[in-house]
Amino acid sequence: MMDINQESDVLLLVDIQNDFLPGGALAVHAGDLILPVVNALQAKFDLIVATQDFHPANHESFAANHKGKKIGEQILLDGLPQILWPVHCVNGTDGAEFSKDLHKDSWRGIIQKGKNPKLDSYSGFFDNAKREDTGLNQLLRGLGVKRVFVVGLALDYCVKFTALDAQELGFETFLITDGTKAVNLNENDGAKALEEIQAAGVKLLQSQDLNKRHV
């Protein structure tokens, strides 16, 4: 068992929003199964921060904004390879809201990302080109965070890139594997993401491996 340090460990909830859950515009298969895991984990942490995909309707990662293009096709967007997605997590819509079954009372901050229509933002820390900073790093530093524990949706995109950036920024980073699910546009994308995350030095564990330390 690993004891949680309430003063320097953060639980980072990545994009647990309606459009990524069953019935949503970009639903992750069985994504709702992480909700009880995440809620149970929240009871163990004093520091909890969430990220929120928050796109304008004209976001250029949406296939609908490119005549003749289909969901899943790849284009160049501002010089970067970009998968075209269905319209999702548009600000002001229910799809952009957090799941009603997700406990939110003890969050210390919400970081919105993907607001620039010309740049997608998988990571909670930066856009995909690392041209713009979301403010998450500064928030965590201000809270005195040393270790980051990542859960959320989806493993092979936003969760992966958030965990990789946290590790690169110098946080000791952990991915809680039963607190995430993959999109799997291609078979085994989730498994490949876990391999990539581990290779970068992020540690994998399960929610049952964490213990709330009582002082």
UniProtKB/TrEMBL annotation:
Gene3D superfamilies: Isochorismatase-like. The keyword Phosphoprotein does not apply. It comes from the Bacteria. Belongs to the isochorismatase family. Pathway: Cofactor biosynthesis; nicotinate biosynthesis; nicotinate from nicotinamide: step 1/1. The lineage of its organism: Bacteria, Pseudomonadati, Bacteroidota, Cytophagia, Cytophagales. Residues 10-208 form the Isochorismatase-like domain. PANTHER family: LD05707P, PYRAZINAMIDASE/NICOTINAMIDASE. Keywords: Hydrolase, Metal-binding, Pyridine nucleotide biosynthesis. Its EC number is 3.5.1.19. The keyword Hydrolase applies. Pfam families: Isochorismatase. InterPro entries: Isochorismatase-like_dom, Isochorismatase-like_sf, Isochorismatase_Nicotinamidase. One of its GO terms (molecular function) is nicotinamidase activity. It comes from Algoriphagus namhaensis. The gene is pncA. This is nicotinamidase.
